[in-house]
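User: Some background: our group keeps a shared notebook of sequences we're curious about, and every so often someone picks one and asks for a predicted structure to add to the entry. Today it's my turn. The entry only has the sequence so far, pasted here. Could you supply the structure so I can complete it?
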Amino acid sequence: MASHVVVLDSSARRAVIKTTPAKHLADVLQEACTKLGLDASRHGLKNNSNKTLDLSQPIRLSGLSSGAKLQVVVLSRSPSVVSVALQLPDSESGASNRLTGKFPSTTTIWLLLRHFESGSTGSEPSRNFTGRGIPQMETGASGSGRLFYETPVVQVMGRELVSFADLQKSLAQLGFNSGGVLLRLSFRRTERPLEEAIVEIDQYFKSAEGEQTGGVHSASAAKAGSGPSVLEPFPAPNDRERPSPQEPSSPSQIQPPSQQSAALFSSQSPIGDEAQARPESSALLSDASPTLDTIVTGPPERPISVFAPSSASTPAASRQAFNEKDYEPTIAHAKLHQARLATSSVNRRLPTDAELAVQAETQAKKTADAKDVGIKVRFPDQMQVISTFSHLDTSTTLYDFVKGLMEKENEPFSLNFSSAQGPRSLPKDGNVRLIGDLGMAGRVLVNVLWEVGASSEVRAGSVLKPEFQNKAKQIEVKEIESVETVEKANETVEGKGKQKDEGRERKGGVPRWLKLPGKK
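Assistant: Of course. Here's the predicted structure to add to the notebook entry:
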C-alpha cells in the first residue's frame, strides 16, 4: 500500500505526495499540479510502464507501491465523451429512478444536475434538484411557513460532493475521462433559508465566472445540449412549488436525506495487529518503564503497571511534522542500494549439519540462561498491562493472569504474540513454558483477541476491572530532537573544518617566485 508517491513532470521536477489508502488519484494529481504549477484539468498520470492511470480509483485499488514514481503527461485538448447515469432518491424516482445521458468530460457536476432537472431529454418531466426548499417542522405544528435550503449531495466512487466547490468539479477532475459513471443523488437539509442560499449561490457563480475561461464552459454547454447554463441564476420558487403554512408538506419533503453509509472499513485481523505492533513493542516498553508510583499488585500478587490508551483521536506519530526532503533519495541511498545488490548477488555456502547443531546449541544455552521476560498485555480497548514472568511460568499461568485482570472472566478469548517464525497463538492447556518452549526473550507484546463466542457488550465496553482502570496512567512519549537541529550542528562543524583545510592549502601552496611567467 502506497504511503507516498513521487510525481515527476517533463522537466524532471519532482513532488512528493503523501497518500492514504482511501485517497483518490485525482486528488494526488491535483496536489502534484499545485506544487509544480500546472493545470490539473489538462494533465494526467502515467506509471513506469507508460500506462495511463484511472484517476477515479483510490490508492488501494491502483496497485501502486510505496514510493512509486508517476509521470505527469499532457492530455488531449478535445474532451472525450462520458456516459453518465444519475440515480435518483426514492422521493424523486417517479416513473424511472435513473436518468442517463452522454456529456463531455469537461462538464461539471452542477451542470449535469441542471441539465437533468430541466428535462432536456424530452421524455422526462422537469424536476428541481438545485433549488429545493423544505419547511421547518415544529413539534405539534403543521409547519412554520419558511423554507430552508436543501442542498444536493452527489456520491460517486466512495466520494461525497456537497459543497459548491465540490459540485463545480468536472468529470475529468474526478478522474472520469471515458467510459461510464454512476452518480447517486440525495438531498440534505441545511440551516440556511432558501432565499439566502440562492443569493449566495448566485454570488459564488459570478465570482467563479471571472476566474474561469469562457471557452471551456461554452464548449461544455454546447455539447451538453439545451440545458440551462451553470451560471444561470435560480428561478424564484413560485406559489405552486411553495407549500402553504397550514398544509403539511408531503412525506418526500419531510423525509430526511439519506446519510452516507460507512465509506471505509478498516478491518484489523489478528495477524495484522501483531505484525504492526511487533516493531513498536520494544520502543513502547522502554518509554513506559514502570516506576515506583505506577506499580500495583495484580491478581496473583504479581507487580504490574497499568497504562491507559491515548485520549487523542489521531496517533502521536501522525501529528509530528515531517520534512519532504526525507523522501527524496540521495547519492548515499543509491550507493547503499548498489552495495546491497552486489552483496545479494554473491553466492553463499549453506551451513553444514555441524554448524546448524552449534547454532541450535548456542540458542538453547541462551534460552536456558534467561531467567525472566517482560510481557506487555494489550487488551482490545487499548489498555496495557506490563509485568515480569519467570522461566518457570507457562502459558496457563499467563491465561490465568489475564483472566484475573478482566472484569468478565468467562468471556472466551485467546492470546497471540509475534515470534521470529511469525505470529503464534498461546495454547490454553498444557505446560508450555513461556521462555523455554515458546522462545520468549527480552520484552514481548501479547495481544488479547476476542473469540467467536464473545458477547457484543464486552466487545464494546471496558475490559479491565475498575480497581485496575482507576490506577491506569498515560504513557509518556519522549520527544526526539528534531533532525534539522542536528543537521545544522553538523554543517557548522564541517564548515569550520573546511575553512581550516583551505587555510592550510594556502599556506602550503606554490611560492610566487616559483610560478612561471604568464597571466596571473
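Suggested note for the entry: Residues 24 and 328 are 23 Å apart (CA to CA). Residues 213-294 have pLDDT under 50 and may be disordered.
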